[in-house]
User: What shape does this take?
Amino acid sequence: MDSFDGIIEFVAVAETQSFSAAAKQLGCSTSHVSRQIVRLEERLGCVLLARTTRVVTLTKSGTSYYKQAKDLVVGLQQANEQVNQQQLRLCGTLKVSAAGGFAEHYVAPALMDFLAQHPDLSIELDLNSRLVNLLEEGFDFSIRYGKLDDSSLIARKLASRPMMAVAHPDYLNQRGIPKHPNQLKDHSCIVANNDNWEFNIDGQKQIVKVKGAWRSNNANLVLDACTKALGIAYMPKSTFKDAISNQILVPVLEPFWGEGTSSWIVYPNKRFMPQRVRLAIDFLIEHFSQWDEAG
Assistant: This one.
């Protein structure tokens, strides 16, 4: 049975191209992973991994061995998962990356509901606008908003996010109410992720470049700045739900609001996915299946 030692560690390194990332994935130390793979190479009598200071790659022998070994590991993981499914008991840690008001106010409570259903599970939610490397940093999935550029990841749509432009009545009394997006050049705009705002003008998507005195990539701070009458804000409708219902802010330019973009669940393209990850993703997809951005 000793001949099986190190195979799981080897497959993890082959897939993450990193000893430290593999260690995070397996929940052990980097030295343990390295030691197990060295012993595996000694038993096989060949080098499986080419190691440099920056990257780990498969040798020719390593590539051939990985093609066979990964099926063994996947089969073992699936067998373990089937046993867990019979018990319907989730455990371990679910590590999620997310950012923005949507994640804070809607995704986080949904994950709390999921956790309440599985008391043996732990969830780590990292709210950070930084674009994380899911594999290297050990995240199971991420909640992302907008255009997705990494084609190596799988993305499932969570919710459509149509836009809304709003302002505080005090600001509008001082500066006037814009009647057309082109008039925004004469206004102070509160900028979130970019200063190119997309509107629906005469049935076509058109970009209007805006500027203003306050800029932040945090939706809550954009909202706060707007309630302080610092300018016009333009973000997904749910951001302003409470402020509109409480008549703190008022909509502007409504005929021109754009379709916006979407929020996505993004995760690595791996043959095996732990049950806790798969069920959490399915739970969120179902939870937001009837999502109404206007609320």
Q: What stands out?
A: The mean pLDDT is 88. The radius of gyration is 24 Å.
